[in-house]
Records
---
Amino acid sequence: MKIKYIIIALAAVFTTAGCTENFDELMKDPVALSPNPAGQLTFTQLCMSGNGFYQHRTNLIYSGGFVQHYSGSWAVTEYGGKFKKNDEYATALWRSVYSNEMKSVVDILDKTKSDPAASNINAVAKIMKVMIAQRLTDIYGDVPYSEAGLGFSTGIVTPKYDKQQDIYNSFFAELQEAFVQLNAGGGSVKGDLFYDGDITKWKKLANTLRLRLAMRISEVSPAEAEKQAKLAFQNGVFESNADNCIMRHLNFPFNDDPAKLDFRGNGLSYGFISDQQGDHFSSLLINYLRDNGDPRLPMLATQKKVSSSGGAPKPGESLYEGVVPGSFIWEVTGGGSESISDIQPYYQQLTTPFLHVSYSESQLLLAEAAYRGWVSGEAADYYKKGVEAGVKQLEIYGAPAASQTSINTYLAAKPLVAGTQKEQIGTQLWVTYLFNSIEAYSNWRRTGYPHLVPITSPESQTGGVTPTRLYYPNDEMQKNEKNYLEAVERLGGKNDWTGKVWWDVN
């Protein structure tokens, strides 16, 4: 009885202690979340970045390894860097999201749909559902959406796998509904850890997500992408870093025991910690930042302590080095981990914030939309704003601020150049999505940028070809056979990670 088990697990989290509206309450009681919409909203938001199970496996090991944000640790290199299968890693997002976030947000929608006083939290739940499902469908392709999370309320325990194109159509409709629905008379949004109930910011988030989704389908359905990008732009996207959708975490270890769920700490940081300092930035990332004079380099990485030939670094020798994708930390020439740069420590704390959607992302996507002629304004101007915001957004993690002079010098030296716009924008998105590698992986599949380091390991199970999706859990064949087989048939008859999702025509 899977659904019954899920309800029991959630009930263990949503105690009668009352609804949690801020971190003070979370500090007092790790399960002070009541089974009402406010408590479930808090729980859902905590899950999205505090769930160390899939943040470690889906975000860090596979997505971070695939797009070469990271290299060095055993897990990231052996599986994400060499493209080797691990069923637990491949199915982590699926197993966690359906049993936690999706079930919870569907409950919120069901409880608030007929209550005018809960109109705003209902609209927020619609936006949250899109955020949650976007990760799922972009990673797996066709997934249960329209019938997901309805096992307890309607008895649907074998939901159909909606086609990704239909899911995206639903996304656009639901984001528009939520944007219109949010209003001053729609009641307060309690339990909101993203924006503390600020309706204006939620409206901007709905539109910025819509812009992200519009550009995600730019290659497969350009007419619809243009339409949706224009509507998102007209409705109003993020206007500064003050609009960023951020989850601020607490210093608590991850626990996915159903009786002791605790997602208050940063799940990605939990992954860094679990990998015992083996995770480092890849040489692709470090070289790009270093060779272009990017002011983010010292904000992200530490200087190496030892020369690759031993001893102190030599005069004129670069102080920043990354690990070659597909290589382990112990394979680094010279001083091992001390002869390469480390990830700055403020990114590796359980208290490290998690950035879900950013102003930098929105401006870079608008740069591409303007380049395509879909929105007004100059692509070069949006590009500059996006890159500058990407530098400044690192301050939320505790990074020392880059000087405005250094930012201006960088922007002047590296403007958007005719003929290379898509590559420049795609590569800058790859940098700005750092720590949210799931999004970087999706945008790389859409655009092909940046150009990744070829993987030549004979151990690779794809012949060095980067996987283009993650595969469904095999036990779906037993639990939801008919719908699973229909979805696999649409993939060409094989549940493999070399198939492509609908929007990936690159």
Note: The radius of gyration is 22 Å.
---
Amino acid sequence: MVARAYTVAFEGVEARTVEVQCAITPGVPAFSLVGLPDKAVSEARDRVRTALSSMAIALPSKRITVNLSPADLPKEGSHFDLPIALALLAALEIIPSDAAEGTTALGELSLDGTLVPVIGALPAAMAAAEENRILLCPRACGAEAAWVGAAQVIGAGSLADVVRHYTGQSPLQAAEAGEVVEAAQGRDLRDVKGQERAKRALEVAAAGRHHLMMVGTPGSGKSMLAARLPGILPPLSAQEALETSMIHSLAGLLSEGGINRSRPFREPHHTASMAAIVGGGRRAAPGEISLAHNGVLFMDEFPEFPRTVLETLRQPIETGEVMIARANAHVKYPCRFMLVAAANPCKCGYLSDPARACSRAPNCGEDYMGRISGPLMDRFDLRVEVPPVAFTDLDLPASGDTSSQVAARVATARAVQQTRFADRPDMRLNADAEGEALEEIATPDAEGRALLTRVADRFGLTARGYHRVLRVARTIADLDGEDAVRHPHVAEAVSFRIGTLKES
């Protein structure tokens, strides 16, 4: 007799079903595990054997063979412990075999039988729902997995709880979806003295998910402005939260008993490697651009990042997804993020400060900003200079709108876009609009078109730059509550596009 249980193996955010087959046959006593397991999976034999011994369950003096099918799919991770134990218990006729076959299980076993939380419970629940099976997981993973309402999720504290559940002695209750509520941050836009133009650029970028480049001297408030961006972004919708949490689940970032509705804000250091930013490594894990999906990727000291890292951002910015190719895997991750970059105008940082003349101007600035290639710079929708703030200005009273006021306008503009793109599943915000859809929603009036034509001729706008101006103009019109894109909207979008930076 062959007993079966089911689990999953991860390929990116996809969870592929794996059948765990267990056979107990006459022969020399042994415990064999086959099906292309890695080291962590191979060690499951000892953890399962010891966990069963702690429950006073002795293995028979026969040959035990566990096969992980399909055998050509690499199996990685410690979450195979529980499904292997489940199939073995069914083969020993301790739990009903039909109950084991109707379960997708994942979880790591301690030597005393306690279940340890593992990564990937949310994608596993999606796979279980597609196969119409129950998901069995550690109790700590239940609140996360229960967000997939189509699957019944059962969280257990130990292997003994699992046995009592399937034998009817003490049935376990279905897990309930949990949500992590973060404490409100005290960072407000009014804390930033002056910089009204940069605040406006931040609002426009947040409303349409446009990429933003800020250039200014050290201490002018670039990082301070970026840190207040989460405070003006609306919370994740249910669909966005599920998409983002699936990536965070694979990265092991959902450890607080549920998913988070706050938009991701990732700020990698400029010494981060390409694998850390884009994704990769032995397991082809998601990188910062995927962890920032539906959120913000803030890259401070942008020109200090390695050139190879910066150039790899070009395709993900355009397509919204990244393909990680390895010898043993080709994994695709979503990465629709808002890129916010901050940079000094030159190596010393004071090229544009009249009070501190740069001794190597203008070569210092050209060499430093030249580290950012023209094609990459062309992908920034908004470019704004952040001027230095005088010491005397710091004593002035706070000015401008609060974060809550800006957040209300951003939420209203995003609601308009949600309605606009309701029939287009591949588009959610103005930044996604292209082709016929962009022409339909962002065609400016006669004055606006004339202005855009003059700017394109004068500054040599690329085709990509032309379309990005239209998208930003559409967002500005949404913030103003206008149905049509008019001359003032185009003018403001153009001013952010060319700004003080040379069109590439």
Note: The CA atoms of residues 63 and 285 lie 36 Å apart.
